[in-house]
Known about the structure:
Layout: E1 3-9, H1 23-29, H2 32-38, E2 42-48, H3 67-86, E3 90-95, H4 101-115, E4 119-124, H5 145-150, E5 170-175, H6 180-189, E6 192-195, H7 196-202, H8 205-217, E7 221-227, H9 249-262, E8 265-271, H10 282-294
Parallel strand pairs: 1-2, 1-3, 3-8, 4-5, 4-7, 5-6, 7-8
Helix pairs in contact: 3-4, 8-9, 9-10
Amino acid sequence: MTRTILIGAPIDSGQKRPGCLMGPAAYRVAGIAREIASEGHAVEDWGDVALPALQAVTCPNPAVHSLAETLGWTEVLRDRVDDALSEGGFPIIMGGDHSLALGSVAGAATFAARQGRPLYLLWLDAHSDFHTPMTTTSGNLHGTPLAYINGRDGFDAFPPFPAAVPAPRICMFGIRSVDPEEQAAMQERDIAINDMRVIDEHGIVKPLRDFLNRCRKDGGMLHVSLDVDFLDPSIAPAVGTTVPGGTTFREAHLVMELLHESGLVTSLDLVELNPFLDDRGMTARLMVDLVGSLMGKKVFDRPTRSK
């Protein structure tokens, strides 16, 4: 039995389309605690994190907005995720936009470093999020967390990342929207990008299992960051950054089932859910269903809906 700890991160500051701050409430209404408990796991809801007193900070890039708020969220989430892991829990961070990963992965990295274990990162997203505050043209900091995690320069306003996650320990899945500057930076660092072309040609199982095997052999901890836009917008419309050609219902569940079977996942982000854009809660319910697969639900456990 896993001690699962739900942490709400009502964050909207990483981008400009309002609504993601309602994400944690939507997950609760969609029954995330009930779904986890139905698989025999303990569930604790630690409520939503709140912003601390904001610092006076500036960025040389005039496009960047909400820097002080993003720094505040980063600090409180880093500490909350570290606390959950330190208490033997499995934290699930319910967002909130993807800037929350600046803090959630920092917390996981802090704990992993204290344990003397390498942290691995599975990035399930349509976007690479490899900009820095100095290279972003939109100014949206939800496009920067992976660069921070990997140790790119340009994050002078942020606390130093506890232990940068090197390229071999990062697996990007479902990528299909990358800016040229991001692509050049990733190629310099040899980060494996399993875009939809790779998935179409080779399937999901082999590249994912290869990554999981490396994590297992290294005795690593695995943080999974699941963005709604990893999924095709036809099945998950509640995201402000839709990109056609995402993973199908079955492919997404296969990823989660493989992660469950690996037994390696130690923390999870659920990001970019914007309930204001949803269709009668279908995206929130699908994301909760995917959490169920991660926690052990099998295909034959799913009841057939009446016609």
